[in-house]
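Collaborator request log, item 7. Partner lab (contact: R.S.) asked for a structural prediction of DNA polymerase beta to inform their binding assays.
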Amino acid sequence: MATNAEIAGRFEEFADLLEADDVEYKPRAYRRAAENVRAHPSPIADYVEAGDRDAIEDIDGVGDAIATKIVEYVETGSIDELEELQTELPIDIADITRIEGVGPKTAGKLYHELGIETLDDLEAAAEANEIQAVSGFGPKTEQNIRDNIEFAREVGTRQLLGEARPLADDVLAFLEGIEEVERCEVAGSIRRWRETIGDVDVLVGTNDNEAVIEQFVEWGSVDSEIESGPAKASVRVGEIRVDLRVVVPDEFGAALQYFTGNKDHNVSLRNYAIDRGLKVNEYGVFDVSEVDAGPDGSAESGSATGGSQRIGDRLAGETEEGMYEALGLSWMPPELRTDRGEIAAAESGTLPDLLTREDIRGDFHSHTEWSDGNNTIEEMVGAADGRGYDYFGLADHAEGPGIVGGMGLSDTEILEQVEQIREVDAASDIDVFAGIEANVDADGEIGLSEAAIDALDVIVASTHSALDQDTERATNRLVRAVENPAVDVLGHPSGRLLNERSGLDFDATALAEAAAAHDTALEVNSNPRRLDLWGSTVQAAIDAGAKIAINTDAHQPSTLEFMRWGVHTARRGWAEPGDVINTWEPEEVREFLH
Ligand code: DGT
Ligand code: CA
Ligand code: CA
Ligand code: ZN
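Returned to partner:
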């Protein structure tokens, strides 16, 4: 059945094609509907199944016409009007618009002028210098296309963590319910909480492979079976591939360690073991000091069942903890397994004591209907209170570069909103911070009046424009923003959108040093399309002494849930509770923001 993400994807495609066709107004309506459909907390296909038309039309931005298309899509798997549009404009629009600076309008023009339909067509035209000859384009645009085509190709094949992880949770819940399953766990990038996922890996420990594999491929959510064999099977669920591997319970820990990766971590771990006369593989940790069958190379000639890889004295393999312990290392959370120093830290007992969800006491960046959010101040605060938070910050958009006219708040409106926020604060149990999301212009300035700055508790400053600057200019710009004494948090520092645009490239250490010196926190924006900062940049920030703020950037109560992605992303950057200001006591937070 169609997921909300798939439905949203169709409307995004609709919007892109209409825009490529120079249609006005409608694309915006479709995009708004897509966004709300994507964020909707329950499966919309269920409403269709139950014939609950009202529930569909209750979704913000979904009127009669869009509801009809949703029903058509869920029931038939396609939308006639969209198919017609696709025939008329046979452009791989999602692929082509992944190139920074190439929007649907440009894609439409390139199709009409040069017949470009695919990324390959586009690359060929750029190589042949045909693009700069089209009116309105120039050598700079053409060069930009050449520079970004690789990025566009690569990202097209990966899913967002925020879309793949809920599916992985469902797979796990299903497998746990199978009688023959003794142990199961996700593995691979999904267990490491990487921000994008190539495929979902799951591992089962059982003594009855056949029964488990048979039930797995018959799972109700499976759209098609890709392959299945005696010890593994792969299926497709929506757009996501799920790989199941089945092992005996006694080797579950070894397989879990191996298939969690990442590859670099595994290679380093294997070398670490070899240096100590041990051998690590997907079957266990083995003492091979008494084995004279040659070094590592002999394993390659082993049978498909790994017979010759189970050579020597097995020291561990049943549990993952045991695997690391046999190597003299403490167990480490999967988020850390990227070969950025975690093995040395495990050896010396200096692994970080990572932040957890329970440590989070608030959020500093959310939106209301005052700008582009869907709810009132009261509703957002109520939802934050309902999550047990101690404090909560509203940060609607201020007007400025990159913000659609009329959507951002003027200085006068900011002062009006602050007053309302104070009233809501007085009437609620949690501390409510009056904030704003200011816009960092191309030179690093934020355009807020002194009066607004004085009235506000939290100023989140974010870039929303000029995201194609070179590294030096981008770094200077962001450093200037964090040095501004009014700025408390630098919002989504790179401005990247996963699978859509790469955002600013900047020197994370230089930025973090400036942030640390000026008591400005760097944001981990938890929106699954952003996750910005991310693992390596969070780690650089913390190493330089900067503080992190994990924010949801929620535009409605349901997306306060995004905190889950932000916390795991911060864990990928070795964040301990003290590094993250939203674990602090309310008084400490006030002090930091002041
Ligand atoms: P993905 O699916 O592209 O998001 O990334 P992963 O990390 O899930 O990669 P995947 O699905 O190809 O393989 C799952 C894990 O299996 C991977 O993280 C580490 C392990 N693995 C796969 N191939 C190799 C390999 O050739 N050598 C080693 N040491 N480990 C491997
Ligand atoms: Ca994978
Ligand atoms: Ca895989
Ligand atoms: Zn925001």
